[in-house]
Amino acid sequence: MKTFRFSIHGQKFEVDVKSRDERTLLVEVNGTSYEVELDKEIRTTKTPVLVRTPVPLGSPLPEAKSSGNMAVNSPLPGTILSIAIKAGDKIKKGQKILVLEAMKMENSIQSDYDGEVVRVGVSAGDQILQGALLYELKTN
Known about the structure:
There is one protein chain. With 140 residues, the protein is mainly β. It is 0% helix and 51% strand. The chain contains no helices and twelve strands. It has strands at 2-8, 11-20, 24-29, 32-37, 68-73, 78-83, 90-91, 96-102, 105-110, 115-120, 127-128, 133-139. The strands form three sheets. It has a four-stranded antiparallel beta sheet with strand order 1-2-3-4, with no helix packed on it.
């Protein structure tokens, strides 16, 4: 469970707490096991336990459809600073689409696919949430 190091009158002790119940501890002092009975009941702390839901791991990009429309959503919440595309533009994979400010950092969002922009779902200055539609793309 836990290891403690003590020095008493110059002599060093290493104490490993192996287990415990309400009034008894099983400890090992410098390699020798002892069962220690406590005068008081061990109180558990009243500190709340923080319980968080597990964060989902990132998923791979969806396969581009051979033809059809694909919605591209925001990877994080923030403010749209600038947009470099408009409906009807032909874009290539890796091309800069827009700049998103999130947590006081500018993030350049690039296209993951080749295609034609069907519509842009945001405007410069918009504050968006994670998952908001950024643009719709028609893949070839």
